[in-house]
Amino acid sequence: MSRIDWHLVPFLIILYLLAFLDRVNIANARSFGLEADLGLQKVEFNTALTIFFVPYIVLEIPSNILMKRFSPRIWLSVCCLGFGVVSICQGLVQNYSGLLATRFFLGVFECGMFPGCFYLLGMWYRRTEAQKRFSLFFSSTSLAGAFGGLLASGIGKMDHMRGYRGWRWIFILEGAITVVLGVVFWFTFPSFPEQATWLQEDERAYIKARLEADQGRNAAERKITLRDVKSVLGDFKVWLGGFMYFGLIVPAYGYAYFSTAILQTYKYDAIQTQLRSVPPWAAAFALAMIVAVLSDCARHRFLFAIVPILISISGFGVLLNIHDNVNVEYMALFLIAMGTYSAMPVIVCWFNMNLGGHHRRAIGTAWQIGFGNIGGIISTYSFLPDDAPLYKKGYAICVSFICLSAASCCVYAVVLLRENKKRDKAVRDVGLTEYEKTELGDLNPEFRYML
């Protein structure tokens, strides 16, 4: 298992760190004059954030289907190269239209990153050991936030070097790093267990057997069809998984895109703003890993999602009510980042690992991430310039959606509990063939959901 971890997890962390960094570095660039140089007016910056989510939402499920067909190594490497090139182009745009075009294509190439990586992780690990890996991967967003702030504070000092403003260098240099690593990934990125060349046959058989004992056959050889998509989306539990994630995406992107704007209202200069954005991300990474380890040890997910959600709500509560104490307000940003980014990987892992089979997991994971990212559109218009410096409307919106996520988690837990009890009382052997069990995935009467 240690060999698997070293062959898989570091690649996924680096890949998603790059993706998230290239996605949210526009917030860092904003601190170094992007709006003034491109002549952005009123909500045009917010619209540039929003257009990213249009292809990102629509193309999630097709991306996972294509990844299954071409292999993660090929598909995710191509996507990495694509969004690296687009990020460089983002640093060369001359007007608002160019910014919109690059943000749109950034969404096209990044759509496969998140659901694809979770899908790949889910095909290697048992449910009781997956949370640590999911959270370590997901927390690359926290690392990206921290690293992005430090990197932006350094790159920002290159302002006017070779005639380029600091914000352009942020896009160009970070995009160039992504392109180089995308080329490396083409030769080194991991794939599904069935395609892993570094495994011996007895090791591959062992991995297959332990996963079958935990989740049933995954039917790796089976193609995914439109009928599968319709079948998976007809499951009420799958919709609940989408709402669980949707509710947390609003505060997550609200924080990622606008934390620097919030910090600027505390009268910090551009460099200090970037540096002070780092500690909350670091604290979020630490708490996420603590929660993940405890969740795996307890073999339980529900409570480890709800408690961080409550922490996030308390942070927004402070910002809604305290406006005259900068230290307390800065502390509230810690609570928001820690709570939100600790709950999200638990929710994704919980839902993902309760889906059985390649076809149901590929579609269900893409659906959860795709539907959930509709919240990203809402978040981009939650913190408008006219609402500064208090941003009461944005904070209230975030709290409302966090409560929606908490309610969805509670309903999902109740549904799983009832379904497990129902299956415990049912006849054990209903005469299903192995093929039929595989087709049913987690709907197989022998499957038990993890609470």
Automatic annotation (TrEMBL):
Gene3D superfamilies named among the record's database cross-references: MFS general substrate transporter like domains
Keywords noted in UniProt: Membrane, Transmembrane, Transmembrane helix, Transport
Pfam families for the chain: MFS_1
GO molecular function: transmembrane transporter activity
Alphabetized PROSITE patterns for the sequence: MFS
Tagged with keyword Transmembrane helix: yes
Main location: membrane
Domain spans labelled Major facilitator superfamily (MFS) profile: 8-423
Record membrane topology: Multi-pass membrane protein
Record's protein name: Major facilitator superfamily domain-containing protein
